[in-house]
Every structure is written in C-alpha cells, then in structure tokens.
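Reopening this one. Same input as before:
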Amino acid sequence: MPDTSNFDHITSVLDKLIIYLRRPPVQIQLLAVVLVVGVAIFLDRLIWTALGARLSGWIGRRRQRRTRAILRFITAMLHAITFPTLGLLLLTAAQRFLIRQGVITGMLDKVALIFWVILVFQIGITILYALFDDALIRKYHHRLFIPLLIVMIVLAILGNLTDLRGLGNTVIAVLFDHPITLGLVFVATIGFYFWAGGAQAVEELLYQMTTRHTRIDPGGARAALTLMRYTLILIGVAFILSQLQLNTATVAAITGGLSVGIGFGLREILSNFISGIFLLIERSLQPGDVIEVDDEISVVEHVQIRATTVRTLNNDELVIPNHTFFTSSFKTYTGTDKKVRVPVLLRTDCVIKPNDVIDLLIETALGHPDVLSEPKPSVFLLEYGDNVATFQLNIWLGNPILRPKVTSDLKLKVWDAFAANSIALPFPEIELHFPPRVALEMTHPAQQPALATD
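Same output, byte for byte:
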C-alpha cells in the first residue's frame, strides 16, 4: 500500500489550482477566453455557411481538373485555418482591451500559444488530406491526431501550473518492491496508445506513398512495413518493461505464470503469432495474392501477425488464422507467377473439320482483350464420338480474378463464331437396333377381334 505522503505533490497542485482560479484577474481572463472561443466558433460557421456552397459551385465550373484540385486545396486550407486565426485575432483584441483596463493578461499569452498549436495542427491535417486517401486520414484524424492534440494542450496547461517532472515522479503504488509512478502509468497507457497508433499510421502512410509513387511490389512493401510496425511496438513494450526495473526473481515469476497461461489458453494465439511472422518474412503470402481456400477463390487483403484477411469474389470478407496456412494446404494462383492458364471445354458435332475449328477458337480467344497473346492460346481435340467432338481451349490470363468473366465471354463469342461459320452444336442421337427374329406388331385397339359372348 503506497505511502499517503506520495500524494502530497498532487494535493499541492490542486491547492494551487484552486487558489489560482479564485483570483479576480484570472477569472476575468477565463471569461475572456470563453468569449473568444465562442465568438470564433460562431464566426467560423457563419462564414463557411455563407461561402461554402458558392465556392463549391464556382470551383466546379472550372474546366481543368488540375485547376479544380488546386482551388479545392486552397479552400480546404482556408477553412482549416479560419477558426484558429479568428481566435488569435479576437484574443489579441481582448488582450489589448484588458491591458487598457489595468488587468494582467499572462494567461492570454499562454492561450495564444495553444491557438498557434491548433493552427499548425489544422495546416498539417489539411496537407495530409491532400496527399493521401481521405478515408485513411479520416480514420486516424479522430482516433489519433485529435486525442494527441488534446493531450498536448492538457500537458501545456499543467506545465504552467506545476512541475510536470515532479508530478510524474509521484508514487501511486508499489509492485514487486518497485514504485509505480504517475509518469510510468501515463507512459504505459496513454503513451503506449499513441506509440502503437502512430506506428500503424506510419505504416499506412508509407504504404500509400510507396505504392503510388514508386514501382515497389505492393505485397513486399506491405510485409516489410508490417514487420516495421510490430518491431516498433515491441520496442515500446521493452521500454515500458525497462522503466519498471524488475529484478530477476520478478521476471522469473512473471514468465513462469505466462508459460502456464500459454500452455493452456494462449497456445493458439502464440501459434498464429509465430505463423504470421514466418508469413511476413518468407513472403509466401502477400496482399494482392489470389488463393483458393475451401474451393473458393479469394484475394488476400491484409497479412497481420494473428490472422490473414481475404475477400472472396462474392465480396465476403474472411479472417483466417495464420496457423491454417501451415497446417493445411491451399492453392495460390500468384505465388511465383501471376499468369494463370484457364481451360475452356467446348463441344461441336462431328460434321466438322477439326483443324478449322481449332483455328477459329484460337482466333476468337485472341480477340478478347484480357487474353494474353504470349503464351499463345492452344486448342486440343480431346475426343470424338456419339456425334460429339470435344475441344479444350487453353488461354492465359494476367489476373486470375478475371477467370469467370473471361470464360463466360469466350463461350458467348464462340457461340456466335460457330453460328457464323455454320458449325453446329451437338445434339444427342439414339439409334435402336432390334434382332431380326423379333416381330413388332402395331395393332390399334379398335382392330382387335371382339371376344365372343353367349
């Protein structure tokens, strides 16, 4: 149980804060800050409610796409900086007014610094939206960037009220004879959250940059960046553990307990984790690969440490544990070569010249834009008989996902080509043979003799 004297610093901070807030000049400045923020928000909304639709219509009438893109960026930048700029202008006016009234304005100087931070933050976010995909930046805007800005503002305010280093060294608990300070708790929770989230954001941003502006293989880039992200996360975990300064006996006790848990409850998780590492290092499975799992063609979207996410042709998203790819077989269409051969079975009647049909099938296949000319399509006569000749048309595709569509297109084209060249499709014919000793008499019931009756 921690010593109550450890909380003296926190109590001192609270006492100072209460005394500080009771001072009339401070209360006047707080009222001025509230008014400045409220008026700045009101004017910001008023301005863009009046100008937003007009600017959008004016930009939409520009003919050149590049011009429209530049104007949209300028508009977005102006929208982003309107609130902090108005806040700074109104704060300056309020500060001059209070100085004339003989009121000190030290707090307003610190609030002005916060507005400057918000201004820089808004400019940075707008640039990110211009450079990267909107959905990606929006994902981290509210989950990472805004919380980070709030934490920075809170730390700046606390830094003006007290010594942050002394506040962080306040002991709140004792674990294994080692003091747990308020700063360590902050680093292990909020700090680690931003560290892990930042590592993921850096991975996504670098992936978009490399795939958009370079010719680097997307699968290889994703694998390398994923390993980088988990390496950064492990570095963060190691840093937190180093701050705990656990002795050898403590580490042995913790690892002993974890080994029991892994042996019973975490075995599958550990198996998936190790499998994920091997998948990323060996690159045997990469985002964009086309695989067949449970007789269903799917595209690999994400290869994570625990599981791999694939999307089927029906747009179903499947999450497959990584150890599945090590304990069961699966078919990959893009392992070493993304080209795939697709066989198409076709039948005609036997009243044809096989070589003419073969030439017609090859010509029809080469007329499809998705069929590769190299390797060249080939046709084999598999069998003939019973008024049916069976051909196998082999085509090569650069994208296995196109297999169903191209197969259907070719069958329709071949149908038209057969009709144009008077090649008939097979129809089943049945020929009956009867022994000569069997006499068949077809007698109508009306012609049968009537039975004599008494």
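So the earlier flakiness isn't reproducible anymore. For the record, The CA atoms of residues 9 and 166 lie 8 Å apart.
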